[in-house]
Every structure is written in C-alpha cells, then in structure tokens.
Design a protein that fits this description.
mainly alpha, 6 helices, about 60% helix
Length: about 100
Amino acid sequence: MGSALLKAMGDGIDNNLEAGEAEERNIYEAMEAGKQVTKLPMSLGEALKELDNDDVIKSSMPNEMYKVFHHYKTDEWEKFNATVTDWDTSTYLDCLP
C-alpha cells in the first residue's frame, strides 16, 4: 500500500495534477448541495476491476507481484461469492421443495 501511495503521489507531481479544493463539509451534505463525487468501489470485485485499469498503481507492484496479487485477490472474491451465509439459509431454505 505504501508503494502504491508513493507512486500515485509521484504521478500527481510529475503530471502536475490538481488535487482540487479541500472539502470541509459533511460529504453527504455536500452531495445534496450538488457536489459531484467519485465513489469508491463498494466491493472487492469492483476494486479489482478498477485496479486492472490503473497503470500507475499496477506499476507500484514490480515484476510478477501484480499478477500474484490479482490472482489471490480474485480467488478470494470468488470464494466469498460462493459462500452460503446464515442469511441465505434462513431466507431461502423455506423456498426449496
């Protein structure tokens, strides 16, 4: 994570990217007032898709590190999605014949 942050900061400095104005309001109030915000991914699956499109952050993981990281995190996401929870059982078990 540290190397990804350093890489992102370096990219911002190298490309003279503007961080924008600081927001001191409650973000929900700011959004109600019309502020446009980019939301963070809401799941590991969404985060992996975003990471796959981010060459700067991917470059912070040298050599095969990104491929290994992506492989294990994709496997983790797939296992999570295949897990039957207590909620699933209590909600849907009565529907089975």
